[in-house]
From TrEMBL:
The chain crosses the membrane at residues 96-116, 122-139, 146-169. This is YrzE family protein. Residues 23-42, 49-64 have a biased composition (Pro residues). Residues 1-91, 191-219 are annotated as: Disordered. SUPFAM superfamilies: beta-sandwich domain of Sec23/24. The keyword DNA-binding does not apply.
């Protein structure tokens, strides 16, 4: 029998089984199709052509992460950023609080000034400024509170002290002035007046009835009884007189015309001494046992104030006083040129 190449000649299964032939080889799978290569664009050389198509790299699975505790997401998964722990702790409050320092300085100045007489009348405003600065420093955020608390307390104490001490100093000052005036009046020796003519019914002096025990009031000694229009002359040459009362018609601007009758009096002071004199006259008028009301009416020449200008030696000063009285027939007018002179009492 002639040997034939494999696959040649008729196929006979019986012969293959008898001859022990090898079964046929399975076919080779076809190769993947190759994409066509586009020709290079016109005007370009082969060196400028794009590179041939390369298949994408094979998928490589990501590396496995270490085991994470339950409830936490591994970093980089599901769009979550990596976790690096909790947020950083907040910085403790600090820094220099300028308003607190200003409050302490202003409060300290006010605290010292509160003890200085007369200055504490205005230092309360400084203490108030320090108190406001301290309160503002307390409410500021991110600043230390210790200095602010100290400045607020110091300014508040200074404010209270300045008000309390101002009241105390005022009361003490007024008391000292009153005491000095009382002591000064007690040391004044009244200058007596020359005796009036013996045939004058008012040519005597009588005790001042200003006190219950019949003694003089304020150390002014006895009063000198005189009649309206009469001149009272003192030992040093000073003279004083009060004219007869005349009816007084107050203007629409007058103040004090509140009793039955309105009268005016002309007071004359003659400086018969050898030196200039500073008058300090003060009048007291009563009528029917009732104190008269002083009328102030500048439109009619009743200023309500005695003269205070210096009277040169040998010169005379005259001024008008008006009073509203209860009884025009019973008027007592007490006046003196100054504290050092005995009071002259003029009656009608």
């Amino acid at each position: 029998m002639t040997n034939l190449p494999p696959g040649a000649g008729p196929t006979d299964n019986s012969d293959d089984e008898n001859n022990g032939a090898v079964p046929p080889v399975p076919p080779v799978p076809p190769l993947p199709p190759v994409p066509p290569v586009s020709p290079p664009p016109a005007g370009t050389s082969g060196q400028d052509a794009p590179p041939p198509y390369q298949p994408p790299p094979a998928y490589v699975p990501p590396p496995a992460y270490a085991e994470v505790p339950p409830g936490q997401v591994p970093p980089g998964q599901y769009g979550q950023p990596p976790q690096y722990g909790g947020p950083p702790p907040a910085a403790p409050p600090g820094g220099v609080n300028g308003l607190a320092i200003a409050s302490i300085i202003v409060g300290g100045v006010a605290f010292i000034g509160a003890f200085i007489p007369f200055l504490n009348y205005a230092v309360w405003f400084v203490a108030l400024v320090g108190l406001v600065l301290g309160i503002i420093a307390l409410v500021r955020k991110g600043k230390s509170k210790g200095l602010a608390i100290g400045g607020t307390i110091l300014s508040a104490v200074a404010l209270i002290l300045s008000i309390v001490l101002a009241i105390v100093y005022t009361v003490g000052f007024i008391g000292a002035v009153n005491q000095a005036v009382d002591e000064g009046l007690a040391t004044i020796t009244p200058i007596p007046a020359d005796p009036l003519p013996s045939d004058d019914p008012f040519a005597t002096t009588e005790p001042d009835e200003g006190t219950d025990d019949g003694t003089d009031d304020g150390g002014l000694g006895d009063v000198i009884a005189a009649q309206f229009g009469q001149v009272v002359t003192y030992d040093d040459g000073m003279e004083i007189s009060v004219s007869e009362p005349t009816p007084f018609t107050p203007s629409g601007n007058a103040v004090g015309a509140d009793q039955a009758t309105n009268l005016s009096f002309t007071v004359t002071i003659v400086n018969g001494t050898a030196t200039d004199y500073q008058p300090f006259s003060f009048s007291t008028v009563t009528s029917g046992g009732v104190e008269a009301s002083l009328i102030i009416d500048p439109d009619n020449g009743a200023e309500g104030l005695p003269p205070v200008d210096t009277i040169p030696a040998g010169q005379t000063v005259t001024y008008v006083e008006a009073y509203s009285v209860a009884d025009a027939n019973d008027v007592v007018f007490d006046v003196a040129p100054g504290f050092e002179y005995t009071t002259a009492r003029f009656t009608n």
